[in-house]
C-alpha cells in the first residue's frame, strides 16, 4: 500500500508504541487519526505530531466500548473521507496467578486486549471493503501471544486470543477473496514504554485487583523483572517497533516479531512453535530458566511493591 496520501487510525496512541507508530505514519506521509482514553496525553501527542508536519485528528475513545470505536471510525471518515490503515494497539499488562485473577481484572484485560480488536475490525473493515482501495489492519499483540510465563495468566490468554482473532481476519479476507486488505500481527518482546504503569488508564480496574496482584512472589517478581529490563536500557525502543511494523505492512507480511533478534530468543520462539506443532510441550526446560530469573528479580522487588 502507498503510505503517502493514505490515512491511518491508531488506538492507544497517546504514548508508547502507539505514539511511535503515529510518528512513523506521519514520517511516511500519512494523515493520522490518533485515539486514546487519556485526553491530556492525547492532546499533547496531537500537538507534537502537528509540529512534525502531520495532518492529525485526535479523538478520545475508550476501545472497550464498541459504540466509541464506531464513533471513532465515523469521525475519521468524516474528516478524511477514508481510512486505509487501522492499528489496534491499545492494551495493558498486569501479572496475575491463574487461580487468583480477580474477575474485575480479567474483564478489564479481555475487554481491552481482545474485544477492542473485534470492535475495531467490525467498525473499520466494512468501510475498507466498501472503499476498495489498498488497506491494512494491524494488531499489536505481544511475544505473549506465542509464549506463556508464570504470572502471565491474564495477559498471555488475552494476547493468544488477539493473535487468533487477527489470524481469523486474515483467513476470512482470503476466503472471501478480498485482496485489497492486508493484515499484520506485531509480537514484540519487552519494549521501552510506560506499560508498567497500567493504572494511568484504568485506575478503577486495578484498584479492585490490587490485593491479589501483589500477594504472591511470582506476580511481584514478574512485574519487577519487566521493570528491571526496561530500566537496564536493554529493551528495544518503541521507534524501532514502529519502523519494523511499517516495513511489515509495506511487505504485506502477516507476522513481525520486534525484539526477537537475539539467537536465544529466536531459538526459544522456534522451539515453542515446533513443540506446539508436534504436540510436544516445550515448556518444562524453558520454565527452569524463567524460575531462575524470578529468583533474581525477587531479590530486587520490595515486598508489597506497588507500581510507579
Ligand atoms: N511495552 C511492552 O513491553 C510491550 C510488549 C509487547 C506488546 N506490547 C503491547 O503494545 C501495546 C501498547 O503498549 P505500550 O507498551 O505502548 O504501553 P503504554 O501503556 O505506554 O500505552 C498504552 C496506551 O493505551 C492507552 N489505553 C489504555 N486503555 C485504553 C482504553 N480503554 N481505550 C483507549 N486507549 C487505552 C493508554 O492510555 C496508553 O496511552 C499494548 O497492546 C501492549 O500489550 C507492549
TrEMBL record:
Keyword tags: Oxidoreductase
Coiled coil: none
Entry similarity comment: Belongs to the short-chain dehydrogenases/reductases (SDR) family.
Species name: Alterirhizorhabdus solaris
Molecular function terms from GO: oxidoreductase activity, acting on the CH-OH group of donors, NAD or NADP as acceptor
Pfam families assigned to the protein according to its UniProt record, in alphabetical order: adh_short
SUPFAM superfamilies given in the database record: NAD(P)-binding Rossmann-fold domains (SSF51735)
Top-level taxon of origin: Bacteria
Protein name per UniProt: SDR family NAD(P)-dependent oxidoreductase
